Amino acid sequence: MPTTGPEPEGCDDPALSAKLATPARVVTVVAAALIDADGRVLLARRPPGKAMAGLWEFPGGKLHPDETPEAALTRELAEELGIDLRPACLAPLTFASHRYPDFHLLMPLYAARNWKGTPAPREGQELAWVRVEKLADYPMPPADVPLVAMLRDLL
C-alpha cells in the first residue's frame, strides 16, 4: 500500500507545475565536472558574444544528431579545452532539467578524473580550477546551479 508524507515544499505551486507541463523544444547538452588531483573542479566562463556571457559553467556542449552523450562530451572537451578524454573515463553523476523562456534544457553531468593534456581555453573562455566549497561563489546559468550541491556530496 503506498504511503504519503507531508507535501514537499514547492510541490503545490500550480504556476510552476503548469510551466513545467507546457510543451517546449528540448535541447540536450552534456557537461563535465573535470576533477583534478587536488579535488578542484574546472569551470569555464562564457565569453562575450555568447548567450549568458560572463557566467561560469561546467564545460561541454550540444549533441550532434545521432551522437551519444559520451561521444559529444569527448568531442566538445577536445574542441574547447584541447584535452583527450576517453568515454570510459566519464562517470554519469546527475542531470539538470531547466525551463528557459525559449526551450527546455536537459543536461547530463559527468564526472571525470582522468584525461590527457592540460585544459586550455580554445574558444575565448576563461578557465578556473575551483574548490567544491567555493563553486557557489561563481555566478552560473540557472541550469548549472543545482548541480553544485551534487558535486559537494560527491567530493
Radius of gyration: 17 Å
SS element count, helices: 3
Q: Helical percent range?
A: 10-25%
Q: Taking strands numbered 1, 2, ... along the chain, how are they ordered across the largest sheet?
A: 4-1-6-5
**Beginning-to-end CA distance, first to last residue:** 37 Å
Unreliable segments (pLDDT under 50, ≥5 consecutive)? none
**Assembly level:** single chain
Strand fraction equals 25-35%
Q: How many β-strand stretches?
A: 7
Element pattern in H and E:
HEEEEHEEEH
Could you tell me the mean pLDDT?
90
Task: Give the class from helix and strand content and strand pairing.
Answer: alpha+beta
Query: Which overall shape is indicated by the principal axes computed on the Cα atoms?
Result: globular
The largest β sheet comes out as: 4 strands, mixed
Layout of secondary structure:
Elements: H1 14-21, E1 26-34, E2 40-45, E3 56-57, E4 60-62, H2 69-81, E5 91-99, E6 104-112, E7 126-131, H3 145-154
Parallel strand pairs: 1-6
Antiparallel strand pairs: 1-4, 2-3, 2-7, 5-6
